[in-house]
């Protein structure tokens, strides 16, 4: 396991062995690894060697340290394209990621002026509002606010949406095939979690988040819904490709 007479530093040997144990499934994504004291016993090395090994794996984004909680196997970041439309549930299923959705609110609300314009509604029309807490590997990583025209999708306010795919429910009730027949207008920003978001996501302190606001359109040009997603920065990354797409970027004035 550890060779004291090797030219490879002890901490690198420990780091490599821990990495192999993770890859072999001994420690799963999101699971804590043994304490420093326990690892010292297992590898028969000093605490500073263990700390250096852990630091090496944190640098490689294999482990992550949470103050006061311990060291955990990092959950691979969910990689999402800003130019290809796929729902969260669909993406997780395609990539064999365990996901769960908790409904925080499901109600009918009045559309404000901005939403009335974006969704091409008449003054005074109502919306179905869904507030959802999305989990990856049992960890809450996203708070999602969805607004849909009540005149078309009012049935969503009357059914149990717990742990359901929104698009699958719409397809089931209306026959609309959404995943491959939509496009979006997206604004992506960064921010820090609010007090409410800290509580909902089970955080001990403010964290960096992505805030993704999008209007989703059917290929006919008709608006489908408006969504605002607050996503933990540690769990998501975004990329763009301009092949076959026209991209624009606006700088936010500070």
Automatic annotation (TrEMBL):
<dbReference type="Pfam" id="PF07702">
    <property type="entry name" value="UTRA"/>
</dbReference>
<dbReference type="InterPro" id="IPR011663">
    <property type="entry name" value="UTRA"/>
</dbReference>
<dbReference type="InterPro" id="IPR036390">
    <property type="entry name" value="WH_DNA-bd_sf"/>
</dbReference>
<dbReference type="GO" id="GO:0045892">
    <property type="term" value="P:negative regulation of DNA-templated transcription"/>
</dbReference>
<dbReference type="InterPro" id="IPR050679">
    <property type="entry name" value="Bact_HTH_transcr_reg"/>
</dbReference>
<dbReference type="Pfam" id="PF00392">
    <property type="entry name" value="GntR"/>
</dbReference>
<protein>
    <submittedName>
        <fullName>HTH-type transcriptional regulator FrlR</fullName>
    </submittedName>
</protein>
<dbReference type="GO" id="GO:0003677">
    <property type="term" value="F:DNA binding"/>
</dbReference>
<dbReference type="InterPro" id="IPR028978">
    <property type="entry name" value="Chorismate_lyase_/UTRA_dom_sf"/>
</dbReference>
<keyword id="KW-0804">Transcription</keyword>
<dbReference type="InterPro" id="IPR036388">
    <property type="entry name" value="WH-like_DNA-bd_sf"/>
</dbReference>
<keyword id="KW-0805">Transcription regulation</keyword>
<dbReference type="InterPro" id="IPR000524">
    <property type="entry name" value="Tscrpt_reg_HTH_GntR"/>
</dbReference>
<keyword id="KW-0238">DNA-binding</keyword>
<dbReference type="GO" id="GO:0003700">
    <property type="term" value="F:DNA-binding transcription factor activity"/>
</dbReference>
<feature type="domain" description="HTH gntR-type">
    <location>
        <begin position="8"/>
        <end position="76"/>
    </location>
</feature>
